[in-house]
Amino acid sequence: MVVETLKEVGALLEGHFLLSSGRHSNRYCQCAKLLQHPDKAEKVLSIVKEKLEKDNIECDLVVGPAMGGVVVAYELGRQLGKPAIFTERENGEMTLRRGFTIEKGQRVIITEDVVTTGKSFKEAARVIEKQGGIVVAVICIVDRTTSKVTDYPMYSSVKLEIESYEPENCPLCKEGIPYIKPGSRNIK
Ligand SMILES: [Zn+2]
């Protein structure tokens, strides 16, 4: 169901892409294309909510690293009846701004749109734990990981196997197909 929805809204693209990690890929997932439709975002994230409930994972606060995690945090927070805030980069450093606070002992769920290496949520986790918060789970819409990236419990709406290649071994480059660079870490 989730893959069909992602395709329907144009969030799952096929072609030749340069990922923010520097690797090349034949598919790309742009979750913003899903999140622009609140009704569809609600359905897709209700899958995560059910998984959290099944495992009795409760939280006091939802935190999403900007940009990818912000709308996801809002929607999950709405479904769980919990506040949703976000971390963001300031001079490249992940931080908590805008007067947001995390109290000592607060149970926190981190939200992401897509997790590939976990770089963003790990930076957010450091910010949360520095404030005394306890990360109880990491959730995302699309889990693109190919191996275990974290010890935190991780939940997703869908796990997608998307092949990626080192540029020098990229079969699409060998075919002479030009790549495009969707999004970037700087604006993410
Ligand atoms: Zn390539």
3D architecture notes:
There is one protein chain. The protein is of the alpha/beta class. Helix content is 29%, strand content 29%. It is built from six helices and nine strands. Strands 5-4-3-6-7-8 form a six-stranded mixed sheet. Strand 6 (107-115), helix 5 (119-130) and strand 7 form a beta-alpha-beta unit. Helix 3 packs across helix 4. The longest helix is centred in the N-terminal third of the chain and has 17 residues, at 38-54. It is globular and about 55 Å long. Bound molecules: zinc ion (ZN). The site of zinc ion has 7 residues, from helix 6.
Largest sheet: 6 strands, mixed
Q: Spell out which ligands are present.
A: zinc ion
- The number of helical elements comes to 6
* Unreliable sequence segments: 184-188
- Which H/E pattern describes the elements? HEEHHEHEEEHEEEH
Structural class: alpha/beta
Could you tell me the strand content as a percent range?
A: 25-35%
Mean pLDDT: 93
**Percentage of residues in helical conformation:** 25-40%
* E-strand count: 9
The neighbouring-strand order within the major sheet is: 5-4-3-6-7-8
The value of Rg in angstroms is 17 Å
